[in-house]
Amino acid sequence: MASVRCLQKLIRLQRQVLPLNAQSSRQLVSLHPRPLTFLLARRTYANDEKTTNNLDDFRAREEQRERERDAADEAAARAAQKEAGTADGGAGTGSGGSGQKDDAKQAKVDAIRVKILDAALQHVPQHGWTKQAIVQGAEDSGYPSVIHGMFPEGGFALVSHFNGKCNAQLVASLEQQTDGGKLEVENPLDFLVQAVRQRLEMVAPYKAQWPQAMGLIAQPQHAPTALAQVLTLVDDICYYSGDRSVDFGWYTRRVGLATIMKMTELYFLQDTSEGHAQTWEFLKNRMDEAVQLQMMLSQTEGMTHTFQRSFNSAFITARNILGLGYNRN
C-alpha cells in the first residue's frame, strides 16, 4: 500500500515538472536564433555593399583608362598635323592662300603616313597586317607609338598602302616596256600573263601573312578602296597590252582579267612547288581558256551580246559607285 502511494506522488510530480521544462525550452529556442539571424543578415548586406563598390571602382578605372587612350590618340594626330604645318606659317592670305596652305599640310601628313607605312612593312612577317606593325614602323621612323591614331582603319591601312605601292611599281614597269604605251605589243596574251605574274611575285615575301590581308580586304567597310585598286590595275594592264578598243568587249576583258587574277592569287597561296611553277602554269591555262571562251562566244552573236551586257553592267555600276574614270589622253 505504501508503494502505491509513492508511485502516485511521483506521477503528480512529473505532471508538474514537464510543463515547466517545455516552457523553458520554447523560450530558449525563440530567443537564440533571432540575434544570430540578424547578425548574419547584417554581414551579408555588408559583403554585397563591398562587392558593389569594388565593381564600381573597377568600371571607373577602366573608363578613365579608355579616355586617356583616346586623348593620347587625338594628341598624336594633332601633333603630326602641327608638325606637317610648321613650315606653312607664311603662306598666302585669302581663300586661295588658305586652300594652298591646307593642301600643303595634307601633303605633309600624307608623306608622314607613307614614311611610317613603308617602315612598318618590314615588321609584317613578325606582327602581320596589324596596328602593332604600324606602331613599330612609327618608332623606327622617329615618331611616338601613339601616332598610330593617324590610321583609324588599322591593319587595312598597311594592306592598302602595300597594294597601291605594288600597283604603281607594276604600272611603271609596263610603261617602260611599252614606251608609255607607244610601242605595239607583239603577243598581248603573253604580256598579260607576265604582268599578272610580276604583280603576284610582289606578294611572295608576305605569302604566309597574305590570307590575313585578304580577310581585311573582304570586310565591307574596306571593299570600295580594295575594288578601286583592282579595277584600276586591270585597266592599266589592258591599256599597256594594246587594248584600246571602245566596243562592249572593253568591259568584258577587264572583268575577265580581274577574275583570273583573283583565282590565281588563291592558287598561289596553296602552291608549294618550286618557284611557284604550278601557279604560273595555272595562270597560263586560265588565260588560254578565256581566249577560247571569247572566240566561242563571238560565233554566237545573240549570246555574246547578252553575256557582254551582263559584264558591262556590273563593271559600269562598280565604276560609278567608286567614282573611277578611265579617260586616257
Kindly describe this structure.
The chain is mainly alpha-helical and 329 residues long. 77% of the residues lie in helices and 0% in strands. The chain has 12 helices and no strands. Helix 7 runs antiparallel to helix 11. The longest helix is centred in the N-terminal third of the chain and has 52 residues, at 33-84. The model is unreliable at 24-46, 90-94 and 321-327 (pLDDT under 50).
Distance separating the two termini: 145 Å
User: What share of residues are in beta strands?
Assistant: under 5%
Helix content: over 70%
Instruction: Please tally the β strands and state the result.
Output: 0
Mean pLDDT: 76
Low-confidence stretches: 24-46, 90-94, 321-327
Global outline: extended
Count of DSSP-assigned helices: 12
Order of SSEs? HHHHHHHHHHHH
Radius of gyration: 39 Å
Q: Give the helix/strand class.
A: mainly alpha
Largest β sheet strand count, sense and barrel closure = none
